[in-house]
Amino acid sequence: MMYRYILLLISVVLFTAPAVAQVDDVHSHWTGSWQTIGPPTGTLMIIGGAASSANYDYFMQLVGDPAAPIVFIPTAGDIFDETNTAYQGLVKAGATNITILHTKQRDVADSESFVAPLRSARAVFIGGGFQKRLAEAYLNTLTHQLMFGILAKGGVIAGSSAGASIQGSYLYGGGPEQKIGFGFMKQSIIGQHYIRRNRMGSIAKILNKEVDLLGFGIDEATAAIIKGDVLEVVGEGKIAMYNPLRPGYTTDSPQEYLFSGDRYDVHTREIIHRSDLLSTSVWTEEQRVELIARVNSGPGRDSFAGKVMIYGSHKLTDQDLRFFLEKLNKPAAKIVVLSTGNDTMRTEGLTLVRRLHQLGGQHAVLLHTINSSKANTDDITALLKGADAVWIGDTRSWQLADTYLYTSVHREMLDIVQRGGVIAGNGAGAAMLSTRLFSEPEKYGWHHGFGFVRDAMIVNPHADQKSLAQMKTVLKQNKRLNAIVLNEDSKLLVEAGRLRLLEGKPIFLYNSATNKTKITAGKEILLNGL
Fold it and tell me: Which N-terminal stretch is annotated as signal sequence (predicted)?
């Protein structure tokens, strides 16, 4: 395996003058004759950050040959050698001929000796970090020109996180002083980490002033593959498309979502293929507003006749599940396991369903999607009609919120517990049972849970001192809240406004005055209300 490193600094190396004519505006020079929005030849792979092994594998499939010369540009980040996570991802995907190209000096980026590897490269992969660093180092340099040249020869330009946003013509996240990206896709603005970091709407704000642009925000471990005018989605998550020229586009609901396998024409700005056709949603904005009010109603209103069971454990034992089935106390109970996320999480949900079957829960079924629109359709909510219990698995609480919060699925779960059913959850699923989500992390703004345990937030068993200090800050800002800090072996029951520790080591309940109440097994305490 050959690894070549080109880390050139002007202070220690002499550079030759560029061998080709320079241009002031590389983007306009290359795209001026394009009849398409994306490159007419070559391929873009735009990854929304946290690239998965499947993303790197797909990139190598596009490259077509593990021995093909690939240039890796780590300049956006802080690690510039083979220990860079993206570099290691390329190697694990089979790449054997990688050149690392890095400088922070524009005159170096303009030198023939620096750009030499780009002349023979079949592909470029741009790593994550701060996209502004990429623009400062390479925009309108010879390096920038030769990346366009790779596309012209039918090659591949890929990037993750900062390496995604830099590919747009308008630089998302570049700040007021740096609004220009490399422009491998014309008339575009590209957001990354878009769903995970709760950045929804940030592109729409920019488009209020830049109305001619097409914007899209990409989820983590998800990529947009662009050839000519066709964008196709691959990976685990979704892409939010923002087209201010679309009929019906409003600032309240500006985005359309694309999922893996969906295709979009970036020239006509319309969806040209859906991989999964949905039944018609009958969910209205009025129903959503009504549900929000219902979830946030005060103590004594909309009280529940059912039970909420909270499990601290991230890994469930058969004993845990038997305990749940015993408390449910209905041999023919219809149980829905609620899940979201990638295929691994879907498989975990199916495994939980099979385990429930083996332990006597013969009527357990899985409800799994990442599509919040699908969560509002009759074919999905039909699974919850007449259900006796829902188990919310340990997936990702932010993704549970993104997919199901304030949807028809959420309403159906409220109906279940209101008519005397059981809602249970473990790990991240347990955290979602409360009114207030905590530590997702806090700065991302995923703060709303399903609200089955009112005026509470459920803190996972592995909270460290920093997390506990942050928890106390949240409590001081929200006077009605209680924080329930779990242990791994905790099994709690909330019923008729009272919380009881059924099994496990003592837990602690904190309030806004940071008072701490110890709860031992068998002890019961009155909460602010279910």
Answer: 1-21
- Find how far residue 192's CA is from the centre of its chain: 9
3-state percent helix, strand, coil for the chain, nearest multiple of 5: 30, 25, 45
* CA separation for the pair 229, 39 (Å, rounded): 8
pLDDT class of 164 with cuts at 50, 70, 90: very high
Asked whether the beta carbons of 48 and 197 are under 8 A apart, the reply is no
| Residue 515 neighbours by CB under 8 Å, 6+ apart | none
Distance CA 87, CA 7 (A): 15
Proportion of the chain above pLDDT 70, given as a percent: 94
Cα three-residue angle 69-100-66, rounded to 5 degrees: 30
Q: DSSP character for 277?
A: P
Place of tokens 């309940």: 509
- Residue owning tokens 């399903």: 450
Closest by alpha carbon to 499, among 489, 514, 485? 485
Question: How far is 452 from 35, CA to CA, in rounded Å?
Answer: 54
Rg for the chain, CA atoms, rounded: 26
Residue (of 315, 63, 26) closest to 181 by Cα position = 26
Say if residues 206 and 189 touch (Cβ distance below 8 Å).
yes
Beta strands in 11-149 (DSSP E): 43-47, 70-73, 97-102, 123-126
User: What pLDDT is attached to residue 528?
Assistant: 64
> Residue 131 is encoded by which pair of tokens?
């996209």
Residue with tokens 């408390």: 327
C-beta atoms surrounding 177 within 10 Å: 8
- Residue 529: band (very low, low, confident or very high) from pLDDT cuts 50, 70, 90: very low
Token pair of 486 as six digits: 């779990």
Distance, CA of 454 to CA of 299 (rounded, Å): 8
Q: Using CB atoms within 10 A of its CB, is residue 528 exposed (0-12), middle (13-18) or buried (19+)?
A: middle
Contact 457, 449 (CB under 8 A): yes
The dihedral of CA 181, 184, 187, 188: what is its sign? negative
Nearest to 338 by CA among 406, 417, 397, 256: 397
Hey, how many other C-beta atoms are within 10 angstroms of the C-beta on 316?
Answer: 18
Neighbours of 387 (CB within 10 A): 20
Question: Is 179 within 8 Å of 170 (Cβ atoms)?
Answer: yes
Q: Best-predicted range by mean pLDDT among 17-31, 273-287, 396-410?
A: 396-410
Q: Cβ(455)–Cβ(528) under 8 Å?
A: yes
Closest to 277 (Cα-Cα) out of 424, 145, 126, 379: 379
What does the alpha-carbon distance between residue 188 and residue 171 come to, in Å, rounded to a whole number? 9
Dihedral sign, Cα of residue 346, residue 348, residue 350, residue 356: negative
Compute the distance between CA of residue 66 and CA of residue 56 in angstroms, rounded to an integer: 12
